[in-house]
Write a structure and sequence with these properties.
The chain has 342 residues and is an alpha/beta fold. The chain contains 16 helices and 9 strands. It is 46% helix and 12% strand. It binds coproporphyrinogen III. The site of coproporphyrinogen III has 22 residues, from loops.
Length: 342
């Protein structure tokens, strides 16, 4: 069985001898070969140059026996394609070119039909990867949820308190909805482009889904995700990752997605028992463990695997992205533990 088949079988909740494994942010700063490439080209250049994006995507697969490749890109290419550029602040975090605050600014964003053209480099990178992988590994596309993207756009970058996006949501709902409508349309067009270019699955990152009050998660985030998911065939694997959305997992599971990616604060075996049998679960080792020692990673990954024994529909992953200070030996221990598990 190829890695790609294993991954798709897990998404379809078929019986497997071990779960497939991949890691959020598996191509990134903890890899010396990534840092070497980044010394020569900026992050944005790497993202926008298909040959470089494909090369970075494949870096972790050359080192580790991972089952899936995730396109090297960023969720912020969508605001950029709509006309709001992003950059990395010197002190860390994201800065957007301006703060999106008014209805007039929303109306001035690029039309949805401009998105596939402006992101054609993503299709080119995926097509290169599809050819290179030749069915060996699952190829994952991704995007941010409308809510998570809106938070960057309205806050003007990374935020601590999320006051502006909440102000928009609670005081100017029609304007908020207009922005979400735009982002929803843009994401549908973007995911279609990714699927046509060869993506086997799509992960939606609702990384800031946990910052909105529980009773408002539906109106702020999930209804827009549901609208995106409804634009694709029900069997196509869409994975939804939310951080801090434990109370919303059941609602997320009924959004039409095929898999729910859960953060490390959840007990995955309990989540597996609670969610419907036809919904796969992904996760959820604490990413910080990979900054510690291989022994700890082996011990804790084995515990997680044992807790999921005899269940179906598990994709092994971390509960959030691997950190820049993660140790290569720890990543190796993680992949060895999952692939050698009996
Ligand atoms: O998973 C992968 O390997 C694919 C690549 C990927 C990146 N970003 C590369 C990246 C993916 C899936 C993302 C998604 C993303 N980007 C999210 C959602 C996932 C999550 O972590 O919750 C978010 C919120 C972003 C926005 C973003 N981009 C942030 C907050 C940062 C870090 C900024 C900082 O202060 O360092 C980025 C940059 C980024 N995206 C890097 C990588 C490898 C680091 C860039 C570098 O080399 O400096």
């Amino acid at each position: 069985m190829t890695s790609r088949e294993r991954f798709l079988a897990a998404c379809a909740c078929e019986k497997l001898d071990r779960p497939p494994v991949w890691v959020m942010r598996q191509a990134g700063r903890y890899l010396p070969e990534y840092r070497a490439l980044k010394a020569k080209s900026s992050f944005l250049q790497m993202v926008r140059t298909p040959a470089l994006a494909a090369e970075v995507t494949l870096q972790p697969l050359k080192r580790f026996a991972l089952d899936a490749a995730i396109l090297f890109s960023d969720i912020l290419v969508i605001p950029e394609a709509l006309g709001q550029n992003y950059h990395f602040r010197d002190e860390g975090g994201i800065g957007m070119e301006y703060r999106l605050e008014t209805r007039a600014q929303i109306d001035a964003l690029a039309p949805i039909d401009a998105v596939p053209d402006r992101l054609c480099y993503v299709a080119d990178a995926l097509a290169l990867l599809k050819k290179e992988l030749n069915g060996s590994h699952a190829l994952l596309g991704f995007g941010g949820s409308p809510w998570t993207l809106a938070s960057y756009m309205v806050e003007g970058g990374s935020s601590e308190e999320f006051e502006r996006i909440k102000q928009l949501f609670y005081t100017e709902r029609a304007t908020f909805d207009a922005l979400m409508d735009k982002l929803t349309g843009a994401l549908i067009a973007y995911f279609k482009l990714q699927i046509e270019a060869g993506a086997d699955a799509i992960q939606i990152f609702d990384s800031w889904g946990g910052i909105i009050a529980g009773p408002d998660y539906e109106a702020a985030s999930l209804r827009w995700i549901r609208q995106i998911v409804a634009a694709f065939p029900p069997t196509f694997p869409i994975i939804l990752y939310g951080k801090g959305t434990a109370p919303q997992l059941m609602d997320q599971a009924f959004s039409g997605v095929r898999a729910i990616s859960v953060d490390w604060t959840n007990d995955l075996a309990i989540i597996r028992r609670e969610l419907p049998d036809n919904i796969a679960v992904q996760g959820n080792l604490d990413p910080v463990l990979l900054n510690l020692t291989p022994d700890i990673v082996t011990r804790e990954a084995s515990r997680l695997l044992d807790s999921m024994r005899d269940t179906r529909g598990h994709i092994f992953n971390l509960g959030h992205g691997i950190m820049p200070h993660a140790r290569i030996e720890c990543m190796q221990a993680l992949v060895d533990t999952v692939t050698g598990w009996k």
